[in-house]
Amino acid sequence: MNPLKVDKVYKQYGDKTAVNGISFEVAEGEIYGLLGANGAGKTTTMRMVLGLIYPDGGSIQYNGKPYSTDLLRNLGYLPEERGLYPKVKVSDQVIYLAKLRGMSQRDAVTNLKRWLDRFNVPEYYNKKVEELSKGNQQKIQFIASVIHNPKIVIMDEAFSGLDPVNVELLKSTVKELRDSGSSILFSTHRMEHVEELCRNITILHKSNPVLQGNLKSIKKQFPRERILLGTEGDVQGLETIAGVTKVVRHENGYALFISNESAGRPVLELAMAQTGINKFEVLEPTLNEIFIKTVGDNHE
Amino acid sequence: MNNSFWTVVGFTVANKVKGKAFLITTLIIALVICIGANLPYLIDKFSGESEPTKIGYLDNGSNGGTDADIIAMLQSYLAGQKEPELEIVAIADAGSADANESALKQAIIDEKIEGYMEFAKSDSSSFPAVTFKSEELMDMSTTQSLSAALQSVKMETVLKDSNMTAEQKKLLFEPVEIDSVQISTIEGAGSIGQGKSKSEQAMDMGLVYVILTLLFMAIMITGQLIASEITAEKSSRVMEVLITSVSPLKGMFGKIFGMFLVGLAQIIIFVAVMVGSLLLPHNADMMSELNINLADIDPLLVIYAVIFYLAGYFLYATMFAAVGSIVSRTEDLGQALMPITMLSFAGYYICLFGGIANPNAMFVKVTSYIPFFSPYVMLVRLGLEDPPLWQVWASILILLVTIGIVGWFAAKIYRVGVLMYGKRPSLKELRKAMRAYKV
């Protein structure tokens, strides 16, 4: 039985449907990606999972059981908009939040110190949050959401506003969390993070789940439409090949857009006849492209 | 999971007590109270009570007549007093009217006298009109003492020729004393079946003032703090983490209770400072002079005061919390709190301008049952009249039921309010949100 099971959940605000029948399951040790443009219903879905809002239809089950307040100590939440007490010491507020979720004072202190060490910032223990930079505040927020070793973690835009070094740091931490068996529901606008972290995804568009499933099989559903060609010299006549829709000249070669995967072979043959080849690759569609295709196309 | 309630309480208290702002305000108010309680003593000290005010007159003794007689009698009257407030100083006649005036003025400049009196010319049978001239505007206390002294002299003059005995004169001069005792005609809520003495009444009156003001301050200050803390939590978005960690109900009442403890500690400090200052030995004279005796405090009144303080606090605190939860930005809070502030002010003013002067008035009786006013108004009735027991408990019961309803409703508003950002929602929007959130 999966730790988190969302089944045909439906939510309406007034006459506006916020989430229209979303279903997914998050397994133990899995990061599940929830994607969608702004206002697509991600935050509403997450809030329903957190028990902040009750769904109008469908059900959410946690280890096979419905929501109850006892669940709170097994839930971790990293909200989209960061929220900490600006004028309270890091230790005071993180320990407070940990205690609210049922931790003992001693465990909370030990865990907090361990996490601060993990992020190389043990000196923040006695600092006020307002004294920290935005990126470092985010680390504290992250610690606050996982300090009580939650079984289910909900992360809304986990890495927004971080520099690349800190993104890597938090990403590896999220992976560790996953490997230790937590089920993570994860939303982001950064597709490369999803490709790196998530096994399964749901793309929401205007409250509807439009694309769902295993990331690899989703990618297979989409045709390969791009060829990366690295050459020694110039190649003439690439645009004349049937199936090639667009040719872009790069410093060390070409990027070709094709309408048909069978155009790959004649492209390579033409290039080989004219110059040396350093690289030839028919690219898988990136999640970014898939996302824009799914969500962007039916934008009115 | 009851632990989390106490965790919220502990965090609220710790944060407030650790904050510099709280410590500083508490200290300042305590200092003000301390100074206020000692003010009569300090004024006394600085005004130098032993020094009588010196009043000059023109010594035209050579002319003889009424003036000299009056002066002589005035002197003997003042000499007869234990602590004379006046001293009569003779200024020598300089000959002409102009020279006399400048001589008198010079005496004021030289600080030999503070002012001088002039006697209007009159025929010998009537008492002359007296003008007191001084640089000070409306020197009430001096004119009063002077008037009293002259009154006495006048009586003496008139009675001089009558055949009254010294006893009769003494009796005539003695002021009439009125002693009022508040009695109860029915079995009242107070402890008093046998009536309250004047000192007890004064004590009650003072006590009602003090309790009323403390209650009002406690409700306003703590209430606003609760509201602003909740709004701050909301605007800094800690709220989202909080409500996923602890149920909103526990979060809200934990905060209210935590603030209650802080407010209570503050009040205890203030009362201790006040009582402590009043009990200082140098204030003992003052106290007995003003007829204040702390032992006269009616313990039952204090118990009722505590009950109404608790009820009033929790009634208003839940409303403050609810309003705090629907406001997104601290800047908008003051305006949103206005209706509650007005309600509290209204209750306080009903007492201040109506209830204390006339605790038996119909509107005072009516408002002593209306829950938002009753904590103030019923307290005044308890202190100053003797309402029947059932009325007091009916008022308390209504108050408790209202607290239940308002608390329940406030919790619902809080539950949806904390998740609503942006423009302050209207009642309709709130109702819609409540239905949507199924709370």
TrEMBL record, chain A:
Keywords: ATP-binding, Nucleotide-binding, Transport. The keyword DNA damage does not apply. InterPro entries: AAA+_ATPase, ABC_transporter-like_ATP-bd, ABC_transporter-like_CS, ABC_transporter_ATP-binding, DrrA1/2-like_C, P-loop_NTPase. One of its GO terms (molecular function) is ATP binding. PROSITE patterns: ABC_TRANSPORTER_1, ABC_TRANSPORTER_2. The keyword Ribosomal protein does not apply. It holds the Pfam family DrrA1-3_C. Residues 4-231 form the ABC transporter domain. Coiled coil: none annotated. Belongs to the ABC transporter superfamily. PANTHER family: ABC TRANSPORTER ATP-BINDING PROTEIN (PTHR42711), ABC TRANSPORTER ATP-BINDING PROTEIN NATA (PTHR42711:SF5). This is ABC transporter ATP-binding protein. It comes from Paenibacillus oenotherae.
UniProtKB/TrEMBL annotation, chain B:
The keyword Cell membrane applies. It is a multi-pass membrane protein. The keyword 4Fe-4S does not apply. Signal peptide: none annotated. Residues 20-411 form the ABC-2 type transporter transmembrane domain. InterPro entries: ABC-2_transporter_component (IPR051449), ABC2_TM (IPR013525). It is found in: Cell membrane. Keywords: Cell membrane, Membrane, Transmembrane, Transmembrane helix. The chain crosses the membrane at residues 20-43, 206-227, 256-280, 301-327, 333-354, 366-384, 390-411. This is ABC transporter permease.
